[in-house]
Amino acid sequence: MDIWGGAHVALKIIKNVEKYKEAARLEINVLERINERDPENKNLCVRMFDWFDYHGHMCLSFELLALSTFDFLKENNYLPYSISQVRHMAYQICLAVKFLHDHKLTHTDLKPENILFVNSDFTITYNIEKKREERTVKSTAVRVVDFGSATFDHEHHSTIVSTRHYRAPEVILELGWSQPCDVWSIGCILFEYYLGFTLFQTHDNREHLAMMERILGPVPSRMIRKTRKQKYFYRGRLDWDENSSAGRYVRENCKPLRRYILSEAEEHHQLFDLIEAMLEYEPSKRITLAVALRHPFFQSPINANDQPPGKSWEGNRDISR
Q: pTM for this one?
């Protein structure tokens, strides 16, 4: 509770340990810059109201949000979101992260846990076939949160960023990174919303690259030539044993991207066209969020209840209220 304004807020309390306090100072700097550049909170990044020191503990107060898109998925037995829900969430995420990119920031840790619903109230229906209750979130308005790893263009760039499953190939290969690594993460997130499971379920670099090759085709030779991680390659190709237990796991659990499509309806193909553009190996060829927001997937309503994401959303960017 905010005793001055009477509103409920979320309070993030930092351990009284210098390394955590320094990380909090960096996050506060980013959040204050976001507030300066977006005073009306139109760009869907979480709003920090204030921060203060309480007996050595740094405390940050935020607008109070609801469940993360990951927690809702988990509590719903990993039942995927509908295509129209994916569309609305995707548009908002692209809009929020484009705002960061326009201001020379890279989030670096985009994942379903860091996309929060404004309100996660839901309706319940009973699936007779599967003998289970299924939840449908009433509103797909979201906010992007957790700017603890966000990096300005001019700042030092850590070698490794992003949570493993959402990590771009240029990060794994230590080729340097910038805003396109966020776009890769968004592609992985949209896949997960659509299917209910992680695209790259691994904890190992070599296996991660093998999964990418199985799903997206070979790593470009230019990236192989440039990387200092030559231990993953042999004679210009990924050094990977298809017949090992790990090789069998990848073969059985991964398939070319388009084979994951659940319907032949045009909107499903449009979504995968967008995901494919976000999962382009070469960062310089990867779709930008400015272009992504004009993608056909966002251009037309699918049914009478679906608000067209294109022009009407752009006319009122605060689509979260």
A: 0.93
- Terminal Cα distance for the chain, rounded: 21
Q: Which amino acid is at 219?
A: V
Q: Would you place residue 3 in the very low, low, confident or very high pLDDT band (cuts 50, 70, 90)?
A: low
Known catalytic residue at 109: yes
Q: Which of 50, 102, 109, 239 is catalytic?
A: 109
Task: Mean pLDDT check: name the lowest of 191-205, 216-230, 307-321.
Answer: 307-321
The total of other beta-carbon atoms located within 10 Å of residue 54's CB is 11
